[in-house]
Amino acid sequence: MADERSTDDATEPKRTKRILLVDDDAEIIEAMRFALESKGFQILVARDGNQGLAMAERENPDLVILDMMMPKRSGFLVLEKLRRSREVPMRIIMITANEGSRHKAYAEMLGVDDYIRKP
Fold first, then answer.
1. Could you tell me what percent of the chain has a pLDDT over 90?
2. CATH (domain of 78)
3. Which of 1, 14, 61, 109 is most open to solvent, judged by the fewest CB atoms within 10 Å of its CB?
């Protein structure tokens, strides 16, 4: 049976995946931006929890990398709000310098996709 897809489908450019980095640490942001842009991702940056929440809702990125402890609104509050307000959940990875297992358990309870400790 012949393939019925139009040739336009095969030549359509793929959309660049967008990642929102939400962290108040400029060095962490720049290191992640450099690494991810070198792999072809488009990077969006927010420097605090309120800005991160607004950008996530407005930009609908493919992935959010979210710091746990930030000014104005913690990563936990951003995670909780995004999980409650969206019909289709976006992928969220939480990053932290904190080593407490209670924080990881709480993030998992809120529905984080992954949890990574900062170097």
1. 59
2. 3.40.50.2300
3. 1
